[in-house]
Fold this protein.
Amino acid sequence: MRAVLRACEPIDVVKPARDRAGEVDSAMDAAACERARQARDARFDGRFYIGVLTTGVYCRPICPVRQPRRENVRFFRSAAAAAEAGFRPCLRCRPESSPGTPLALGTGATLRRALRLIDEGALDRGSVEGLAARLGIGARHLVRLFDRHLGTSPNRVAQTRRLHLAVKLLHETDLPMTQIAHAAGFGSLRRFNEAIRGAYRRPPRSLRHRRTPGTDRSLRLQLAYRPPLDWRRLHAFLALRAVPGIEEVDQDGYRRTIALGGRHGVIEVRPLANTHKLELTVDVPDLGALATLVARARSAFDLDADPLAIERDLGTDPLLGRLVVASPGLRVPGVWDGFELAVRAVLGQLVSVLAARTLAARLVARFGAPLGKRSRGGLTHAFPSPQVLACARLTGLGIPAARAAAIRAIARGVADGQLELASASDLGSLVRALQTLPGIGPWTAQYIAMRAGGQPDAFPGGDLGLRRGAAACLGRSDGALTAAELEHHAERWRPWRAYAAMHLWAVYAELPRRRLRADRFRLHTAPDDRSQR
């Protein structure tokens, strides 16, 4: 039941009804939230929100204001659930700037996929019925899932996301109000104004911070994450694989070309010193897809990961424990576009990382879309679209015929909508769908699921680097575990096997050069993939 505000109560001190929908529902969980609130622990930022009965606002655990008494607070699993209960966002701690809430931890794959699609603007352009159809379920069942697990509705989650993005743009940019309304996904300036007034009880302009006008036309936003984040390893992983023409990596930052709706642009990401944030710089011709862009950027750098949960489950493992302690905050690098990663995974079959990068650069130079006036430094092209590669002649690039056929098969599947990489319903279905394609075996399917599908339990167990890294951790002198041995060990690492893989790859990369020989930067040895070609 939604909160109903009493007409006799003053506007500035509204006491929402004590509706329990969406609240943290066990005494043990509430006690843990209270301890995190008292400590203002940044690692819990975005994991829950605090509704304050005496003020009617909801806050982040790190809110700097004087803390209210315990009996005057309620804990909610999401900002949307707090809003559903009648609380409004705090203007001090700014809930719109918190890390992405891990809303679906412990829930089903369907709900996780629904949240990912909403983050990318599915309900800005469509209806709950359309979203449910994409998920293969009925609209009523989707609404029940949201109510049961999140204490709110799909539309409320989408509205809260739009509101948070709009306020973030008000605080961090100089964009005109009409552009902010458009970028945040509101259908009109009137709806934008109504949403801000309804949530904050003041007009949008009163929330705008004074900023010094600049000449740089790029848009800069801050992306918060839960600490820790191992930026050094994440940066090194991307630097080794950066494809000339579409990616560049400097001492601290990463930039690349992007394509959205047939239009091209450039983004840049780099850490902000002394904060738990990355700075995202955006140069695109149209801000209408900004919500999608921000969601993809967060996914590409795995900013919604929960380091506490991962460390808790992997930190006590005999094989991985010391690695987790030594490298806290290690993330699984995602991708800007799932199709691009799938093509690059096929190009990397049975060759080194550097050789795969060379093949990808040739592919981009021949079939990529030129940026023209938006070119910047070495960023000259956008990655080829599925429609282009579905019928492309890939001869003369050094790509074996079997791998070229696999690339065309993936391109056709994505182009006709039969293959969804970034929003697949679950790990098993995505791996099975990929393995129906020619030239795609277990290693390639798991690697694509891990980085393009954002599946935290994906695990390419046949990988040579993983097997050698695991052997080194166990002190084995015979070089590498067998795939079966590694898979047996990996059963203890569920549901975080992708993070375990990153730790083992890091070990492998640091082994003495004399032991690595020619496979020093090899992605994998995948006889299962070879046998299917």
